[in-house]
Amino acid sequence: MEQKEILSKVDHTLLAQTATWEEIKVICDDAVAYQTASVCIPPSYVKQAAEYLGDKMPVCTVIGFPNGYNTTAVKIFETADAVKNGAEEIDMVINLGWVKEGRYDLVKEEIQAVKKACGGKLLKVIIETCLLTEEEKIRMCRTVTESDAEYIKTSTGFSTHGATIDDVKLMREHTGSDKKVKAAGGISSFADGEAFVKLGADRLGTSRLVKAAKAQQ
After folding, report:
1. For residue range 15-33, what is the model confidence (pLDDT) as tens digits?
2. Candidate list 30, 91, 167, 192, residue with the active-site label
3. Backbone φ and ψ of 58, nearest 5°
């Protein structure tokens, strides 16, 4: 695959706790220059980034990040606030405690509530695969399939590890054909990106591929 094709599937990401506006601006500029799918940034910078970018690049942000144990009401508020500030895409973290309790009904209700708060914007559901058993991953694939979310996403990148080949295979196998898959965390090279895309990943959450492309110039 050509690098340009892989980059077009990248959510160019900067979610470090210490991220400054100057660093976010660089991420935004690079996303435009390399024509990524979106720029994924902390909620506190969404309004600035949306105003800075205009219609040149969609802004994506994270909700309930990175632990997912905020109340549903808080996630709904975060989402509505992000959309009001200009976010075009929302990546939410599920309540992993509910998964461990087998409360997939509550997980689905929360996904639906957040999706409603998106006001038609794209929703990606982060299930944090590294903290789930095989059966829990499969059940979450089914739960997301039954929901109105557009994507299921592997990881926050803030836990024990990110996307793996096996997890993306499993997600593509057990998630409905009308849902898309985002692999995130640990994608460090174009070879990694191509491997995940060929397995069925529609989006790649990473900062490293744009950096790799810049280093080649």
Report:
1. 999 999 999 999 999 999 9
2. 91
3. -65, 140
Is 182 a residue of the active site? yes
Does the pLDDT at position 217 exceed 90? no
Tokens (6 digits) for 47: 């309004």
* Active-site residue (options: 108, 137, 179, 182): 182
98-104 long-range Cβ contacts below 8 angstroms, 24+ apart:
99/127, 99/132, 99/136, 99/139, 99/140, 100/136, 104/139, 104/140, 104/142, 104/143
Arithmetic mean of pLDDT over the chain: 97
- Listing DSSP states for 49-66 in one string gives HHHHHTTSS-EEEEESTT
Instruction: Exactly one of 75, 108, 124, 153 is catalytic; name it.
Output: 153
Whether the pLDDT of residue 144 is over 90: the answer is: yes
The answer to whether residue 116 is catalytic is: no
121 is catalytic: no
Q: What are residue 203's DSSP bridge partners?
A: 182
